[in-house]
Amino acid sequence: MNPLLEALTQRLETRVAQQLYRQRRVTDSPQQPLLKQDGRELLAFSSNDYLGLANHPRVIEAFTAAVRQYGVGSGASHLINGHLRPHHQLEEALADFTGRERAVLFSTGYQANLGTLSGLLGRHDRIYQDRLNHASLIDGATLSRARLLRYRHADSGHLAELLSRRPPATTALIATDGVFSMDGDLAPLPQLARLASDHGAWLMVDDAHGIGVLGEQGGGSLERFGLGQAQVPILMGTLGKALGTFGAFVAGAAPLIETLINTARPYIYTTALPPAVAAASCVSLELLRQEGWRRERLRQLIDQLRAGVASLGLPLMPSTTPIQPLLLGSSATALTWSQALEAQGILITAIRPPTVPQGSARLRITLSAAHQPQQIDRLLEALAQVRRQLGAPELAQASP
Questions:
Q1: pTM over cut 0.90
Q2: Residue 221 contacts residue 214 (beta carbons within 8 Å)
Q3: Helices (H) and strands (E) in the chain, counts
Q4: Crossing angle for the helix pair 85-98 and 275-290, to the nearest 10 degrees
Q5: In this model, does residue 20 exceed pLDDT 90?
Q6: Mean pLDDT over residues 258-266, rounded?
């Protein structure tokens, strides 16, 4: 065997031995609670389709109508000739929805974070990040070449200490998830906004898991805390979660957006997302704004799940969002529980290091407005049976 391939094979075998090997599965149905995956029907609690819009008839109709009018691909980057009317309309709708001057589309949330941080910061700047931030924010800091300082999770006091040691005349940016994707908890945004104001720093919030879910109007974690563009100048959101489509955006003041259009390399050098996706996203955004019952149903399902898991004596992490992690400790335990649930027809992915710290592997239960109360009952019954089979998980102290 080629020595390079042999080395890769050995690395993969090590991952298997450490219970860290990951494999893709093939799904043959739309995103919905009952999935057909690998030839089997499973009740799924692993999707980020929080409002149940990924398979909505109106969204599908908008997509197909736009395909007939604009074709499938956008043909080029936004700055060449790939910025089509649906893209422009979606940007205007997102700016209005978020209460900001402008918005700009990116093809993915990962690219939005890379492009924003590398487009605004340089090697002499400072960026302060929560230790549990999404990987794209960490990688964006690396790409920017700014000095990265990470504060303890949700610890505004530690952040204040780091900011107090900042050299004079340096640009500083604080970046945080609004809702942390693996824990489901919220960042202390009011405290972070005050620190940013006190220290003359930018504040950037990645609200991928908050947009559409939190707030009475679905405005996300910023609406939840009553914060606007003045307090949080940079807002990143995604379209592939609560909106059920694909892509991402950054919203803020006009000079910020124009700067990103001209400096964000992942924006400049990437083909624009298909115009039909933008057209479908416009309809998803309308539904998000019009149908508040979806958020109300989510709240009811979250309460039902949390009450049921508490009665089983299982370690569900504190969260008021659709992300409800069941902490299990070791990777082996998380995999065993995931497999035992799948044997009962329940799909919940085991989340393991390096996605989460050592000793904090978990089942990441995610809920959707498309779920029914009886499906939550079925999950609770399956969890009770697995607990009887395997016993309560033995938790070790997670690594920092």
A1: yes
A2: yes
A3: 14, 13
A4: 30
A5: no
A6: 97
The neighbouring-strand residues paired with 43 are: 34, 346
Identify whether the C-beta of residue 390 lies closer than 8 Å to the C-beta of residue 340.
yes
Q: Measure the CA–CA gap between 320 and 324, rounded to whole angstroms.
A: 8
Q: What are the residues whose beta carbons fall under 8 Å from the beta carbon of 99, sequence distance 6 or more?
A: 219, 228, 229
Higher pLDDT, 11 or 397: 11
For the stretch 139-180, pLDDT in tens is 999 999 999 999 999 999 999 999 999 988 889 999 999 999
Active site residue 181: yes
Closest CA to 70 of 279, 284, 244, 269: 279
Q: Considering the candidates 83, 87, 209, 371, report the single residue annotated as catalytic.
A: 209
Q: Give the position of tokens 């940016």.
A: 173
Q: Which domains does the chain have, with CATH numbers?
A: 23-51+292-390 (3.90.1150.10), 57-290 (3.40.640.10)
Q: Catalytic one among 47, 107, 144, 181? A: 181
Q: Which helix (H) or strand (E) holds 148?
A: strand 147-151
Q: Between vectors from CA 288 to CA 208 and to CA 60, what angle results, nearest 5°?
A: 95
* CA gap 248, 103 in Å, rounded: 10
Mean pLDDT over 284-289 rounds to 98
Q: How is residue 342 written in tokens?
A: 């799948």
pLDDT tens digits, one per residue of 303-318: 999 999 999 999 999 9
- Whole-angstrom Cα distance, residue 262 to residue 272? 15
State the Cα–Cα distance between residues 337 and 346, nearest whole angstrom.
Answer: 11
Catalytic annotation, pick one of 221, 241, 281, 360: 241
What are φ and ψ of residue 172, in 5° steps? -125, 140
